[in-house]
Amino acid sequence: MCLSTMGFVSAESRWLPRREQAEKGKIWAVKVLSPSETERRLRQRFDEAFELCENEKMLLWPFKQELETKSLFLVPETPHKASFPNIFRRSLRPLRMCLRVLSILPFTYNVSRGQYVMKWCTFAFLQSVITAIYLTVLMVTIVVGGVTMFSQSEIHQTQENITIFDIKMLVVLLIGGNLMNAWVQVLSLLYGGQRVCGLLNSWNSLVAATHLDPLKGLQVTMRMQIGLLCGFCVIVLTLSLMEAPDVLVWGLDGVAQTILLVPEEWFYQSPAFVKVVRVVTCVVCLHLFSVFKSFLFSFIINCHMLKNGLASWNHQLSDALEAMWRVGGRRRGHLGMLVQSHFQLVRLVRETEEIFGPMLQCYYGSTVVILCTELYLLAYRLGCSIYSADGVVTIALMTLQTAAVFTMVSLSAAAIEEVANDSIDILRRGIPFNTSNRDKFNMEELTMALTRSPIYITGGKFFVINRPFIITVMSAVITYFIVMIQFMQPCQDQADTNNTQLLGSTQEDFS
């Protein structure tokens, strides 16, 4: 910042050495170790750096406060770590317990240091590594099992066997999509675990330095998501223990043969043994499904916090501008602190995008295929009269669940751009003409930050997640479903005609 714009020095040759000393003072402020020593040592250091008289000290005191705030913001990035209150201890407890049960939580909160850390020798990290190895093995077995099943497809000659084989392959495709997503997510977590810890620590430091509230309504959203996941798992597991619909039984048999490499002869054993095999297969599928959905819920929670943080920042900006108009610009506002806090919020948005980028690419690419597959099964059920209603209801519930989660994830990411765009409307309020030069400079900084580069979440820079993107994907999937229904009906009419002709020829032969 140019000191001449603040009215302290008139000639550039006089303030150049002091600016270099001020930069040293800023570097020192970033490396503050003890909050109790901060105020006394910071004032002494700035007095030496700026060489100011008493009046100039009073004028620069707001500037010192902003640098203190900035040093608090940047503490997680400095070599000397400082501890902050853990705002996630109670809020994220349900999600943390769910991730613990699924063995995909490699980092822990160090109480002594007051930070989230990721250590290689902890039990939580070893659990996550074992889960990654287990998913890698399943990725290999699904390739081997898929090749084996396709090579044996020619032995299915009857129409009933061909139908069962098609259902098995479609269910294997659905579970394979969940497996691929879970595998990519766990590997991304192990690779970028330090960045996740840094993201959580940055949230703690930001909340400690400002009055932002990112946790508003977080527990309700998280409990609803965990409840829906647990309810779905309980329903599917109960159906596998009871008389399950044919489509679920055939799907579990196909997954057992493909992913778990269970020989087909095992399904001709005693009913109790076959039931155990199907229940074990169902548990494996539910674990893959839960791992996949838990990472999506983590992304939704991060988006919820970013939305709340930006909304709280908009409220602070509105209050600051309104206060400046009430006093007529005679007093200096707090726009400098808002510039720093907005920079930290944007940095958190970019960090979230980098952490969840690979997961989002894999998720959106596989979800379109999964939705189309489920709609194909639903259209196949509706077009064929030999299937019962329970199979149609089961496929419809699976499709509804996939579409609901897709909409929830997309709307959570799109809400960040919508709330960020509200800041521009607040900025239109402007500032009084007789305000200070520093406030005018900070207003220009805010204008540039809010208008030059939009804030949104992308899938690895390939696509922007917003409402037009959601409408485009859902329109394509619904169009596919309508086309499938139209193709299914002529096929069904042709099959009924062939059956009628076959029945007529059979009667003529008997006569």
What composes the largest sheet?
A: 2 strands, antiparallel
Task: Bin the strand percentage.
Answer: under 5%
Low-pLDDT segments: 1-36, 49-64, 66-72, 74-80, 499-511
The domain count comes to: 2
Total number of strands: 2
SSE series: HHHHHEEHHHHHHHHHH
As a whole number of angstroms, the C-alpha radius of gyration is 30 Å
For the largest sheet, list the strands in their spatial order.
1-2
Helix and strand composition category: mainly alpha
Distinct helical segment count: 15
Mean pLDDT: 76
Through-space gap between termini? 104 Å
The coarse silhouette is elongated
Task: Specify the helix fraction band.
Answer: over 70%
Describe this structure in a few short sentences.
This protein has 15 helices and two strands. It has 511 residues and is mainly α. The chain has two domains: 82 residues, no CATH class; 428 residues, no CATH class.
What would you say this structure looks like, in words?
The protein is mainly α. It folds into two domains: 1-82, no CATH class; 83-510, no CATH class. 76% of the residues lie in helices and 1% in strands. The chain contains 15 helices and two strands. It has helices at residues 12-30, 35-50, 54-73, 88-91, 93-102, 123-151, 159-191, 193-209, 218-241, 246-258, 271-326, 335-383, 389-427, 437-451, 467-510; strands at 108-110, 115-117. A two-stranded antiparallel sheet has the order 1-2. A hairpin with a 4-residue loop joins strand 1 and strand 2 (115-117). Helix 6 (123-151) runs antiparallel to helix 7. Mean pLDDT is 76; it is low at 1-36, 49-64, 66-72, 74-80 and 499-511.
